[in-house]
């Protein structure tokens, strides 16, 4: 990549604020990420393709470590996991959060130390628990009363497993009702207000095979304000004080979960991680002093904020249609590689890449290729009026909950993941092929 580049932060480069920091404009109208022309990635690996900026992921891990020097940072693998991703996160000093035997085993195969892994899940399968105990995960987060005896039995008479209890602190936060998990009336955790959290803690403490290290909460996702975390923190410290009063036990850990919000479109708010860290630290010290508790070790579990902004999805336009007043640009992917607009009404800012256009901008709707009218990637966005088949369209902020939520719909096959770093591109996860799909189908 030798073309002249203009840094994304230079004046006149509006609209690139949500792109990876390494993004540069190329003289011919294209865009490069980490020194790699996205049009070249599209040529070499075909489309649709997810591009992941390794440096951006690492930099985001470092931002967390610098903001929370005393806390444990656990990357939430469900946002995106591959063996390379597990390695980057580990090298940057983070732990890992998993919710299934699949995520757990992939991470361990990649060399991730099991004792730095936490297993979550509101309905852990026998296979999940078996893998957790066999591989020796650091902590298992108990999410329902029935798990207590189940885990204790699975641990066996000579074992001892570290566990936490997931508490619902009664805090409403999160970008969409489907991703709010901090209040009663949703499936996760044990209620603080009705006493079921304290009751579960009492039962865990009675199990010699379980070592309760602390409390956990995760109030939602895509949260852009510090306040709900502060409210949750105070309530959690209150519960820790009640546990001390009732049982004489001081818990050494407090995990406040993830959910840190990011901007998907220019001008949108993102949670300020440094401000969050500073505020939580101060509040924790204060609340613990007031309750006469030693300050527990804090843990946070960001997923989206670590990997979301590091990813870009690149599509090729297959068809352009004018229906009524709407210009539809249909691309070669859609809801099978990004179900988020259909699930949560998330809005993205796609842009034409790979060529310069002098045509006036038009309001357009970028749709996918799937057999659903709801297969819309982005409605009401601005694209050059001369957008045509063969053009490349890139969607930034595609690193989290894209591939990990991708499906086999229409047997299109899930896209590959290409890492870009210092001017080179390499394949991390290959494209799902017809052969992959055929092999699973036994023909009987
Ligand atoms: C999903 C989840 C996370 C990560 O959420 P993000 O919004 O990606 O930061 C962290 N902890 C738990 C328990 C989760 O379920």
Automatic annotation (TrEMBL):
Substrate binds at residues 304, 340, 344, 372, 401. GO terms for biological process: lysine biosynthetic process via diaminopimelate. It holds the Pfam family Orn_Arg_deC_N. One of its GO terms (molecular function) is diaminopimelate decarboxylase activity. Pyridoxal 5'-phosphate binds at residues 259, 301-304, 401. It catalyses: meso-2,6-diaminopimelate + H(+) = L-lysine + CO2. The modification N6-(pyridoxal phosphate)lysine is found at residue 78. InterPro entries: Ala_racemase/Decarboxylase_C, DAP_deCOOHase_LysA, De-COase2_N, De-COase2_pyr-phos_BS, Orn/DAP/Arg_de-COase, PLP-binding_barrel. Its cofactor is pyridoxal 5'-phosphate. Its EC number is 4.1.1.20. Pathway: Amino-acid biosynthesis; L-lysine biosynthesis via DAP pathway; L-lysine from DL-2,6-diaminopimelate: step 1/1. The active site is at residue 371. Residues 55-307 form the Orn/DAP/Arg decarboxylase 2 N-terminal domain. Keywords: Amino-acid biosynthesis, Decarboxylase, Lyase, Lysine biosynthesis, Pyridoxal phosphate. Specifically catalyzes the decarboxylation of meso-diaminopimelate (meso-DAP) to L-lysine. Belongs to the Orn/Lys/Arg decarboxylase class-II family. LysA subfamily. NCBIfam families: lysA. Homodimer. This is Diaminopimelate decarboxylase. The lineage of its organism: Bacteria, Bacillati, Actinomycetota, Actinomycetes, Kitasatosporales.
């Amino acid at each position: 990549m030798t073309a002249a580049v203009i840094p994304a932060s230079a004046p006149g480069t509006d609209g690139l604020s949500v792109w990876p920091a390494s993004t540069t404009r190329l003289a011919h109208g294209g865009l490069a990420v980490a020194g790699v022309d996205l049009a070249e990635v599209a040529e070499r690996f075909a489309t649709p393709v997810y591009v992941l900026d390794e440096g951006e992921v690492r930099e985001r891990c470092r931002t967390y470590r610098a903001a929370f020097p005393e806390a444990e940072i656990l990357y939430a693998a469900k946002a995106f996991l591959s063996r390379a991703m597990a390695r980057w996160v580990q090298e940057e000093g983070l732990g890992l959060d998993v919710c299934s035997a699949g995520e757990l085993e992939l991470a361990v195969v990649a060399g991730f130390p099991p004792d730095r892994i936490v297993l979550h899940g509101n309905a852990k399968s026998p296979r999940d628990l078996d893998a957790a105990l066999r591989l020796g995960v650091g902590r298992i987060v108990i999410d329902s009363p029935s798990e207590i005896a189940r885990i204790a039995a699975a641990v066996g008479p000579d074992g001892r497993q570290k566990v936490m209890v997931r508490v619902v602190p009664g805090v409403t936060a999160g970008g969409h009702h489907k991703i709010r998990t901090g209040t009663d009336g949703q499936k996760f955790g044990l209620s603080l207000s009705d006493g079921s959290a304290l009751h579960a803690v009492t039962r865990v403490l009675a199990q010699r095979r379980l070592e309760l290290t602390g409390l956990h909460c995760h109030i939602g996702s895509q949260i852009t304000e510090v306040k709900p975390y502060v409210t949750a923190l105070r309530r959690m410290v209150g519960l820790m004080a009640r546990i001390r009063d009732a049982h004489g036990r001081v818990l050494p850990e407090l995990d406040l979960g993830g959910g840190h919000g990011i901007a998907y479109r220019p001008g949108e708010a993102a949670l300020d991680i440094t401000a969050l860290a500073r505020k939580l630290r101060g509040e924790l010290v204060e609340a613990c002093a007031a309750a006469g508790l030693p300050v527990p070790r804090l843990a946070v579990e960001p997923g989206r904020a670590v990997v979301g902004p590091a990813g870009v999805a690149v599509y090729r336009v297959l068809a352009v249609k004018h229906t009524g007043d709407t210009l539809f640009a249909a691309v070669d992917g859609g809801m099978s590689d990004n179900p988020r607009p259909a699930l949560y009404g998330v809005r993205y800012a796609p842009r034409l890449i790979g060529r310069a256009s002098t045509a006036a901008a038009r309001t357009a709707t970028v749709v996918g290729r799937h057999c659903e009218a709801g297969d819309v990637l982005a409605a009401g966005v601005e694209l050059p009026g001369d957008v045509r088949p063969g053009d490349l369209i890139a969607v930034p902020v595609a690193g989290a909950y894209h591939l990990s939520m991708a499906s086999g719909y229409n047997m299109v096959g899930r896209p590959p993941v290409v890492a870009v770093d210092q001017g080179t591109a390499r394949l991390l996860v290959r494209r799902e092929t017809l052969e992959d799909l055929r092999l699973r189908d036994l023909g009987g």
